[in-house]
Amino acid sequence: MKHTLITRALVVWAVVCLISSVLLYTEQIRRQFWERDRAFSALFSEIGAVLTQNESVLPLLSGDEDIAVLRTKFPHLLALEKTAGRARDAARVEPARENQYWLYNPWRQIRVLVDLAPLLTAHPRFTRLEVRYAREGNAQSSSDAFWRWQRTFPQHTQPFTLIADAEPAWFGVYWPIYPALFLGWGAVIAVTGMALWQRKARKEAEQRALYYQHARLNTLGEITAGIVHEINQPLTAVQTWIQGAQRQQTRDNPQAVSQALAAALVQTQRISALLTRFREHVVQEKVTLRETDLTQCWQQVVNLLEHERRAERVAVTHAFAQGATSVIADRLWLEQVLHNLLRNAIQAQQANGQGWVRIESQKSADGIKITVTDGGPGFSPEALQNAFMPFYSGRKEGIGLGMTLTESLMTRMNGTLSLGNSPEGGATIVLQLESGHG
Amino acid sequence: MDKTIWLIDDDESIRESMAFLLSGMGWAVKTFESVDAFTAENSANSALVGCLLLDMRMPGKGGLAWLEEGEWPWPLLPVMIMTGHGTVDACRRAFRNGVFEFFTKPLDADKLIETVGLAFEESQRRFTAWQETARISARVAQLTAREHEVLSVLMEGCSNKEAAARLSLSPRTVEAHRAAAFAKLGVSSLVQAIREYDKLQSV
Question: What CATH number did the domain enclosing B87 receive?
Fold first, then answer.
């Protein structure tokens, strides 16, 4: 049972870890994309600003300005030259080297050499970054990059397109988060599994206790029915013989009367033999008494009655004195005795809602004295008289064998059991058992 | 006819003691230790009278199970069930099967004796009715088919003439059949004939 639960928890853990790490990894890669995307947008507007500057500054230049002075303001301008005879409708842009180009002003017959390379090299995270002149042929050049951006600048005298490729850093994600995630899930599943397992175990224990109780009652019922049947037959015969004898007596037929009485006697002997046989059946298998731990027995009994205890909201406390926890007893019998006492105490406090049961043990001159007290109504004088009689019960639905059994078990364990009421009104039951050596 | 108490119980002490009690009342008692022993001896004779005291639970076939088997071969015999396990359910089942009385063990002698007396009366009544039916049915059996036909038409309330018309006979022939049928049934009027017939139907 526990094994399958562990296997199941492991499987759940593995599946949850797998799913969540896949999701987390995807998210991290997505973040990389956003970063690149933002970088691309920033670069695009940077270059766009440069292009705008070019467009606005070029008409103002005469061609005589000092390039060094110009460069302090516009560092991307490398040179300023005068041209001659440049047609007015010739292309304004003429690529020079990589990422450099001449920008013409045919009205004033000047040109400037614009260098975009410093801007582009500032972004090493792209695998490829280029500014393409639109007339250089197909703008939609294919590429097998994972991510690709391409945007055309709006300045129409400088028809450029910014193209960027990037590869995700597949192994560049933040790794330490994964073990942490797995451990976290492990902890969550372990805690949940433990809670489930405990609940299941408790439920099973309750069911088992209930089952045993039913089984016991059924057995008791069967035994009783058997006895009733066995005794009823001879009893019927006896009664019939005697009734026959009475009738014969009125007719003055002494011979028939004595015959009937003799026959009735035979039947009473049969009943007596039946009872003897039955008693032999039931009573006294030999038991060996040994050192038994009172604390464990009590814990077991409290566990068995956990359900009833909770249902009636009865608080159970114990105070076992040092050196007074080991007694000479049969473990099962002692548990049976404590079980009966605790169950009676719980049942006696059904009505009052906040009952309590307390067990104490002390070393006394004759052994160990165990006292069980409760907050119930205590024993009535009649109950104190009859509690140990078979078939006497304080409860309507009780059979009246519990205390009888308890007392006879205590006697057979060389112990004693006495009932009383505490001054506060609750029941006080004192058990006396021989002390173990522990 | 001799009334007998037939007693079936598996326990010898019960058989003996009850036989003692009941025979002390001057009744004939026959005891059997099982249902099979009883049927083996009496299955041929369906006209047993008296009463049957039957234990409900026995090794082999129990009394109640036996009653529930179906056709009861001894219609003149009231059955009394005795049991040590008298549950309401068993009682209900017993009475559904036409049991005369239901006793729980130990038995009360006064009540038992009183009930046996009542059962004997019941058996006597059933016996008389049975004899009467037997007598009438023997007579009815003597009628020819034609006489039977004529008689049933007359008993529906038709006059001789109407009966003759219905059966396509002459009124004289009808009268002759009628006279013959009355003679065979031993009655002198149609009313008497109808009463005899009713007895036959009622059983």
Answer: 3.40.50.2300
